[in-house]
Amino acid sequence: MRELKQVKIIKEEENKNPKFIKTKMITAEREDGVELKWDMIERHDSVHILVLNVSTNEFLFVEQVRIPVLVNDSSTTSVIECCAGLVDKDKDLTQIAIEEVQEELGYTPIKIKQVSSLKSAVGSAGNNSYGFFAIVSEESKISDGGGIETEDIKIFKVQNLQKFIKEYSFPNNNKATDSMTMFLATLAHSKNNLISTLCLD
Question: Which domains, ranges and CATH numbers included, belong to the chain?
Fold first, then answer.
């Protein structure tokens, strides 16, 4: 089984030329005359896709090392997440989600449906996180996945969604998950059947 490459933090320094995230100081005035100042982050919206392989009855997640998580918690070696990506292209949200499933997991969705639109990091960014459910099968497999060349992504398979939610509500075995993944997993579990959800008109 392929293992993720280990990552070590070398140094930390102020980012003067950010690639994906910009910071701003916002000044606002409340109706009672109080001036408010707030540091905020400007970042892209994102898509997050919970994927079920109907051939194997397994949910497909991605496992990867997340540098900010490693900086804040050196005991966490990797993060288990839904397949996800930035909305940084002039394309329909569903098409961006399909392309992320193809790149990271190596499947073309048979069905895909947007199921949520939430604000993320409301105290620092306030960007949109769009949630999707998708179905794939072994017949729709197009590659081994793994993301683009600079990414080191491993497919993480889950058969029991309830067990996953219970175990990953807290960091487990040096692995963690993120809030959008937990939300989509909980939503799918509450609906009892991801397939029937996707078949709704």
Answer: 44-198 (3.90.79.10)
Phi, psi of 79 (to 5 degrees): -125, 135
How buried is 61 (Cβ within 10 angstroms: 0-12 exposed, 13-18 middle, 19+ buried)? buried
Q: What is the 3-state secondary structure (H, E, C) of the chain?
A: CCCCCCCCCCCCCCCCCCCCCEEEEEEEECCCCCEEEEEEEECCCEEEEEEEECCCCEEEEEEECCHHHHHHCCCCCEEEECEEEECCCCCCHHHHHHHHHHHHHCECCCEEEEEEEEEECCCCCCEEEEEEEEEECHHHECCCCCCCCCCCCEEEEECCHHHHHHHHCCCECCEEECHHHHHHHHHHHHCCCHHHHHCCC
The pLDDT score that the predictor gives to residue 201 is 46
Q: Which amino acid is at 89?
A: K
User: Can you list the residues of the chain whose pLDDT is less than 50?
Assistant: 201
Task: Kindly report, residue by residue over 101-113, the tens digit of the pLDDT.
Answer: 999 999 999 999 9
What tokens appear for 35 in the block? 């001036």
Closest to 108 (Cα-Cα) out of 187, 177, 53: 53
